[in-house]
Design goal:
The protein is of the alpha/beta class. It has helices spanning about 10-20, 35-40, 55-60, 80-100, 120-130, 155-160, 180-190, 210-220, 235-240, 245-260, 280-285; strands spanning about 1-5, 25-30, 45-50, 65-70, 105-110, 135-140, 145, 160-165, 175, 195-200, 225-230, 270-275. It has eleven helices and twelve strands. The protein has an eight-stranded parallel beta sheet, with helices on both faces. A two-stranded parallel sheet has the order 7-9. Strands 8-11 form a two-stranded parallel ribbon. The two termini are about 35 Å apart.
């Protein structure tokens, strides 16, 4: 049985669907019982568990051949770090008590750094915590999600501008499609290894905000310009998105870390994997006529 957390998100959904497509047994772990039936309809077993509920997590992890873990961004939490630490404690306890054969979990580029990374610091803590487990573990240090640009599409259509936290706008950074993360996670769950692995994952090429604007210009057949968001407005921007003060500050620090060049892959002999999906195929899925921009 492959036990998958986070199936309602892009990455967890892709992981579970890939395994189900191979007719492999999947247990989808949900926090919301209302979403259970759709996963049962796909052929998955379902467990209901909050990420701080050790007893429910133990029941969900029982008899797991492989376990995939990802935690929520907690952008609505007054103290994301403290809340995430409670999740890590509960997850580690449940894993230790149930002994799944292996663990794959979603981490991030820059997760080897203890400070200066904002929201990524939660994943540094995750790596440190799970490294204490006695079972084989693999952290997928994923690059910047290509899907992040989808949130700006309404603004792009209305203003012919792409607002960018990447500054300067010609700064190229590693990016990856969430579907490719999920597929790698599913494949890793089916493999065998010993010890603790870190896998650095990015797409087939690196992009800047200017590159994204060029892609949008070509597809929309009008000039789109990447416009940097002023640094002093980072926190204000995230507050306007509904984030808490603490979460907004963490996201602001993360973007500053990318822009300064601090947040990069560790390298130094870490495992590396290049995915296949191009950014233009995320924003404009194949056979799409641009309808994705209407959502």
């Amino acid at each position: 049985m492959y036990v998958i957390l986070g199936v309602t998100g892009h990455v967890g959904c892709a992981t579970a669907n890939y395994l189900l497509s191979k007719n492999l047994p999947v247990r989808a772990v949900l926090r919301n019982p209302a979403k259970a039936e759709q996963w049962r309809a796909l052929g998955a077993d379902v467990a209901i568990a909050g990420l701080q509920d050790v007893q429910a997590l133990e029941a969900a992890f029982r008899n797991a051949e492989g376990l995939f873990v990802m935690t929520p961004p907690l952008l609505d939490s007054p103290d994301p770090i403290a809340e995430h630490d409670k999740m890590l404690s509960a997850l580690s306890t449940a894993i230790t008590r149930t002994g799944p054969e292996k663990l794959v979990f979603l981490s991030s580029i820059g997760a080897h750094l203890p400070t200066g990374t904002g929201a990524i610091k939660k994943l540094y803590s995750m790596e440190q915590s799970f490294r204490q487990l006695s079972i084989p573990t693999a952290s997928i240090r994923a690059a910047w999600f290509m899907e992040n640009f989808s949130h700006s599409m309404d603004y792009v259509r209305q203003n012919n501008q792409l607002p960018s936290f990447l500054d300067p706008t010609d700064l190229s950074i590693p990016m990856v499609a969430t579907r490719d993360i999920g597929i790698l996670a599913a494949r890793k769950l089916q493999s065998r290894w010993t010890g603790h692995h870190n896998i650095e994952l990015e797409g087939p090429c690196r992009y800047s905000a200017d590159d994204v604007a060029v892609i949008l210009s070509g597809r929309l057949k009008r000039d789109i310009t990447a416009t940097p968001i002023p640094t002093h407005l980072y926190e204000t921007s995230y507050l306007s998105f509904g984030c808490t003060v603490a979460a907004a500050a963490m996201m602001a620090e993360m973007h500053k870390g990318f822009n300064s060049g601090l947040i990069t892959f560790e390298g130094n002999g870490q495992q590396y994997h290049s995915a296949d999906t191009l950014l233009e195929d995320v924003i404009f899925p194949p056979h799409s006529d641009g309808a994705a921009l209407q959502r």
